[in-house]
């Protein structure tokens, strides 16, 4: 077999193995890169390792470290409490509060925004009678809405892959397209799953939203509750570590967006400074660094570098162009990313789908800006699947007294609908009209 065929077979095998066995796809990527690169393509090991994405490694390390610190010192819980006070305990706003929190955390660099918000949102939904599927999917779609901001992990990753090629690229479109599409999906879900029935219901907004079910609040949720309901329950005071963390997150946003500072270096610097100024709990926070995701992304991209050296990327691009119908080829690329991502990591799929599409994009037959945004949406909107990371986190956050099997089946039905319609929607809105 030719190096191109071998590299494709190995790539398929990687995804199959990572799906059926508990082996990190990135670890498989490093092994495959060394094996295929040295034994099949004829590269030296130094050449293979030259494909390691050091800049992206630093971004992932810095962002996940910083938000592990924020989670450890209670800054995340603080933001949730403030959010519920902002809407004065109106239950109808709760799904949107958690959607917004997840979106904001994701947009400013929290790779696992769902892991932060879902354990707070799901018990809250159970306690106050909000549909669990509605709340869980609002959290996931919120995370996906902010996932491609210019300072997020996904946003910087796509920019790092597409930017150096000279292909037309718009960080603004990449950010706004997933934001608008996921916002629209969330609005439809809110209506279909009974969100409007929550209007007029009030909750005690000083109660910690992540508390155990059955906790005595001193006052039940009910209609027309007084504005001061639950005021006797004092919220914990804001401490020095939380104030400094909020300042650090603001500095990250301003420094990277307004001054173009490196996301990885700045976020790591802020995390280290917080550790120096407020060392309590910092050792535990270091354990929250998303090493498995760092391994996944870096391993996959190292193998992608071998694919490029072997000529596989050019081969696939030429095969797509040879279809002769650019719009159909673009649709197939969207479905390829969407279907694979429903059963694997979106970061890993993006790491493969976008490089494979680059030769096709260079032909100029369809809008490069539109197709990159469509691939981003198609490869992430299916994260509602219980087989993907975000969907699994929601399922794991379901309270113990809930029939988890029945909830799993509801998630499966919804994710099936999204897998079928999501890539088509992204293609129809971002590629077919040709307006980007």
From TrEMBL:
Its main location: membrane. It holds the Pfam family CitMHS. It is found in: Membrane. The keyword Transport applies. Residues 209-234 are annotated as: Disordered. Residues 265-425 form the Citrate transporter-like domain. It comes from the Bacteria. The chain crosses the membrane at residues 28-45, 57-76, 96-120, 132-153, 173-193, 243-276, 288-307, 319-344, 364-382, 412-435. Residues 216-231 have a biased composition (Acidic residues). The keyword Transport applies. Residues 1-147 form the Dicarboxylate carrier MatC N-terminal domain. It is a multi-pass membrane protein. Keywords: Membrane, Transmembrane, Transmembrane helix, Transport. PANTHER family: DICARBOXYLATE TRANSPORTER 2.1, CHLOROPLASTIC. This is SLC13 family permease. It comes from Actinomycetospora chibensis. The lineage of its organism: Bacteria, Bacillati, Actinomycetota, Actinomycetes, Pseudonocardiales.
